[in-house]
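Subject: for your reference before the review

Hello V.,

The reviewers asked for a structural picture of the protein, and I figured it would be easier to keep everything in one thread rather than splitting it across files. Below is the amino acid sequence we used in the manuscript, unchanged from the supplementary table.
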Amino acid sequence: MSGLRTVSLRRRVTVTALVVLLLVLPITGLAVKAIFDAQAERNLNTLLNGRAQLAQQLARQNVQPANLVRRIDADGIRVTLILRNGQQLGAPAVEPSGEIRQVKTTLLGGQRTRGATLLLSADTSLLDGASRTLQRVLLLSGAAALLITALALILGMRFALAPLDAMTSLARSIAAGRRGGRLQPTRPDTELGRTAAAFDEMLDSLEGAERTARCSEEHLRQFVADAAHELRTPVTGLQTAAETLVQLGPGAPSERREELELLLVRESRRAGALVADLLELARIDAGLVLRRRPVRLQDLAQAQADRLRLVAPGHTVQLSGADVEIAVDPDRVTQILANLVDNARNATGDSGLIQLHVAATPDHAEIVVHDNGPGIPPADRERIFQRLVHGNRSRGSGLGLPIARGFARAHGGDLVCLDKGPGATFLLTLPFKP
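And here is what came back from the structure prediction:
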């Protein structure tokens, strides 16, 4: 792709205007001269014919020949009257030529003028001189117009292009690291106003993206630091147990070896679960791919209720609501419900009440998970969805709820903690139309 041609805008506008003027002025001058010549020719013919008609009228009124010649005489017209007896009155007769326009008529009235010949002659060289004078005036005025226009454009371009200079200065200041400057056009409905407004919007977007990138970078640093801190505990446990096993050797008591081996298994599972959660968050950030298919939410909730009754027989589990079918990724929704149910079990201790309710609205399906535990303080109801944030009774890595919300929002829905005490209440919404 070729680069943008960056010829000086002042020079381009000035040259363009002068070229247009060079084309328009000759055409206009030729048109004016043609109109002037045609009008002058028409006026001369009208004058000669008018004088001839006046002579006919005066002859019918029996005006004396000498008086007739005097009355039809006019500036620029040579009058010659030749009577029937050959007598010639007025100016001497001339022969018509290229520079002499002549009208010849025979008078029809009067005693002495009947049958007389009237010659009206006009010298067209005067018209030619006027035409040449007009041509010179047009040439001189055209040249003066070109000069004045060029000077006016050179001076006017500085004022006209001042907004572009302001945009350039602002862009350079932004590139130099100075943020916050804006053009703020007074009239955003004009061409330059719309350009300046779009320029300001672009700067807002760029600075917003820069702030978001910095915030994301800071969050990433914090997340990596927190993840390293979380991984350090199981890794330290693994290292300690392994070193202790090596130091004890094959003669160590079997009870001690079994204890260290169980510690190795537990800490390795803990580290594996944390790594798996981190991978899930990475997939969510990269854009989760869902495998949707029609499922009955009542079946997914029933499976979690049955699992909870098996692993926590001391808890009372209640399932209610409608039988709702929706196209979702059943594995991801199952992970959401499992996280919510396990959190409810941990929050209620050895025994408690956990309720699951399935419902539907015209736009989305809902699953509510409620427990009768100590609940979540209002200040923490949004904070618990942040990564690596632990609750008072949390036994996990602090990634379960962020992952669950990420799965919900990947479906186009959401996961929130409701203000419905006592206990904790979580609402999962899933839209029917993703």
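For the response letter, the relevant points are probably these. The longest strand covers residues 353-360. The chain has a mean pLDDT of 81.

Happy to draft the paragraph if you're swamped.

O.
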